[in-house]
Amino acid sequence: MGRAGAAAAAAAAGALGALLAAGAAGAPPDGARGYCLSENPFSGPDSPDCVQFGGDLGSAQEACESGELSMPGVTGQWAEGACPTYESEVFGGECVYETENGAEARQVMLLEGRSTCQFLGSIVCGTFIPGGTWKPTPLCGGVDETTAGEGAVDSGADEDTDADEGIDAGAQAGDEGGAACPPEGFDAVADLNLTAWAEAPWYPLAQMPLAYQGVETFFCVRASYKILDESTVQVQNTAEEEDGTPSPGDDSPFQFLRAVVQDPEEPAKLAVGPPSLPPEMYGSYWVVAAGSASQEGNGTDASFTLSDGPPEGPFDWGIVSGGAPKQPSPGGGCVAGTPGGFNEAGLWLFSRKPLAGAEAEAMRAAVEAKARALGLGVGALEPVRQGEDASCEYPPVLPAADTLD
């Protein structure tokens, strides 16, 4: 899979389309032009990837028809002219790079779904497309090439660099104003028994909204695991919208994910992503705390006492961080990434049971206290409604099949 195919995975967050050539952001290249259209399973048939070329159209067509610019198993369709995605009202910018056969390339990103300019410019361009240079349109703070001409490209690049520096400076200022992030000594659970962690489903009490799961689907959320071998775990995520609409849908590539243990000496540090992508493009998923819980009282009188470990289980509660918590969190503490992020972002507070009502609130408060004790910030978390609170009817946990091939 080529760089454009890898970047297509980011379309799950609304980063769609690919337009490749030289020139200022916001206009197709002059001279001979051709483009490659291919279906992206992350964005659906109505939002295909479009890869625009200028210059050597022979090598461009070869890259298209070889599948370099498409998701695995998808065939690209070559056509002459300018990609229609240029006309989109939500065209946010382009990521300029070279294809594997040396053709000049420009991937155009659309601000659709939950995508943001920061996500497109820093996650898709540079992470999913290594070595790519972000060229924002005016919609993402770039310069309008119709008035700036050739200088728009350089100006847009400078502006993006300044924006990135501003983000870094803001993070450093936040660190200076409070405790350092990540907290000193912060790490995943040592010697975690992954079999015990995966032996039954987990139900989030609260979690941070991310690019691929917003608060509108924080109902009846469940994560189920099946260990396939000593380093590979199948992950089945299910959730609903408030009206009961399932998320992800049956045809979604996010119905099953793959988790890999990158270092057998650290089984609590997993990397998770779609099976269609290589593991080096996955996001971190660290189990940072887990243990048993004892309950006193019921209903409005319920309270929970949590105990840490032992790492071999069994577990009644757990805390997962999307890697090391390097960012200051609203209200204090540290968190991995920011709300709406993609990889290296997220915080989940889990219960082994789908609690509802006062019992859910009591358990959530108890696990939040554990998170704060680790130096984690819970200010960006949103509650997840489970059980009777959302009239949940959880679907069957599907068996491991050919989903990870």
Describe the structure.
The structure is a single chain. This protein has 405 residues and is an alpha+beta fold. It has two domains: 3-164, no CATH class; 194-389, Lipocalin (Beta Barrel), CATH 2.40.128. The protein has helices at residues 3-8, 57-66, 117-124, 145-148, 151-177, 194-198, 357-373, and strands at 15-16, 33-40, 44-54, 77-80, 91-98, 104-111, 133-136, 203-207, 219-229, 232-240, 246-247, 256-261, 269-273, 283-296, 303-308, 317-321, 327-328, 334-335, 347-351, 382-383. Strands 8, 9, 10, 11, 12, 13, 14, 15, 16, 19 and 20 form an eleven-stranded antiparallel sheet that branches. The chain has a four-stranded antiparallel sheet with strand order 1-6-5-7. It has a three-stranded antiparallel sheet with strand order 3-2-4, with helices on one face. β14 (283-296) and β15 (303-308) form a beta hairpin. The longest helix is centred in the middle third of the chain and has 27 residues, at 151-177.
Write a brief structural summary.
This protein is 19% helix and 29% strand.
Topology summary:
Elements: H1 3-8, E1 15-16, E2 33-40, E3 44-54, H2 57-66, E4 77-80, E5 91-98, E6 104-111, H3 117-124, E7 133-136, H4 145-148, H5 151-177, H6 194-198, E8 203-207, E9 219-229, E10 232-240, E11 246-247, E12 256-261, E13 269-273, E14 283-296, E15 303-308, E16 317-321, E17 327-328, E18 334-335, E19 347-351, H7 357-373, E20 382-383
Antiparallel strand pairs: 1-6, 2-3, 2-4, 5-6, 5-7, 8-19, 8-20, 9-10, 10-11, 10-12, 12-13, 13-14, 14-15, 14-16, 16-19, 17-18
